[in-house]
Amino acid sequence: MEKSITTSILLLLLFAGNIFNASANTLKLNDAIQSKKISCSIHGNSSSTHYLEPVVLELTNNSNEVLSIVVSGGEMFIPTDSNKQNILVTHTELLVLQPKEKNSFKIKGMCTERNDASGNDQTIYTSNGINYNDKLKKLADFISAKKYQSSAAQFAVWSLINDGDINSIYSSDSTEENDIKKFIANLTGKTFTVKTKDYRYNYYAPPKEKVGGNFEYSFTKAQDIQIAMFDENGILVRELFNQKKVPSGTHKLSFEYDSSVYTDAVYYFKLIVGNEVMVNRKWDAQAMRDSFKNKIENRE
Q: What's the angle, vertex CA 129, arms to CA 127 and CA 135, rounded to 5?
């Protein structure tokens, strides 16, 4: 009996030692870079959008030990090109690297600069390793906890960072929309309306000048599907289709928008499966508006 107790104590001590070693090898990203335990390059992600997984970390473990690298929600990635968007990390990641391992990791995030261009594979970022501000950190934690990695959450980040109108936040999911609006209202002390008739801020408002198209795509398993509209700089303009768990098979997915509200000459329409852009279609919006006007004139 005594031998069994001694063995149990020894196993507990070994287990505790393993926990301590794992903890000792857990480092913040910037600390790991500065200590040269890892080599790191950070670039944009052309296969995603600026509100899903916009940043990719290329990490190499230079040490002979297992390393766990922490990237915390609320931290910022800053592009070396000031014309590109800063990215707020919206989900804390624990990135594990085996000794001498090299690996890449996609990081969830949101753009904080609506008027700057979206990043791409060639956009280089640096990590400042600190939280931008307390309110933005709280919003990042809320997005992570609720799993609201969505266009509505992107609108919320812009609303908060620009001290904007809470009513500019909208979603195909009314529960998500109201949840985010309430959170921003509590965070800022502002008020909001449940719905507005303004097409620009209402997913379900009917377009006056309706133009649109469709994507035909085949899925081998159920997928979360989104179609979204972007300007020529890759910045989100409007979500046009959002459906969870679209069943496997071939689908014709339609989208439309109001060309009297969105009047740029060119837009891009992206079919997004999960967090990845599968199709990116350039649209000559001016030609579509001219076609719509011709139809109206011919009716008259």
A: 110
| Residue recorded with tokens 């997928």 | 223
Alpha helices in the chain (DSSP H): 2-24, 29-34, 134-146, 151-161, 174-188, 285-299
Q: Phi and psi of 126, rounded to 5°?
A: -120, 155
What's the predicted TM-score (pTM) here?
Answer: 0.86
Residue 222 identity: A
Distance between CA atoms of 166 and 199, rounded to whole angstroms? Answer: 15
In-domain check, residue 7: no
Domain match, 169 and 55 both: yes
Distance CA 282, CA 291 (A): 17
The number of CA neighbours under 13 Å toward the Cβ of 72 is 16
Answer whether residue 71 is part of any domain.
Answer: yes
Other C-beta atoms within 10 Å of 85: how many? 27
Does residue 15 lie in a domain region? no
Strand order from edge to edge, sheet including 55-61: 38-44, 55-61, 102-107
Yes or no: say if 189 and 197 are a contact pair by the CB < 8 Å rule: no
Instruction: Compute the distance between CA of residue 191 and CA of residue 202 in angstroms, rounded to an integer.
Output: 17
Domain boundary, last residue among 136, 169, 199? 199
Per-residue pLDDT of the chain (300 residues), as tens digits, is 444 433 343 333 333 444 434 445 899 999 999 999 999 999 999 999 999 999 999 999 999 999 999 999 999 999 999 999 999 999 999 999 999 999 999 999 999 999 999 999 999 999 977 766 899 999 999 999 999 999 999 999 999 999 999 999 999 999 999 999 999 999 999 988 777 788 999 999 999 999 889 999 998 999 999 999 999 999 999 999 999 999 999 999 999 999 999 999 999 999 999 999 999 999 888 776 676 566 666 665
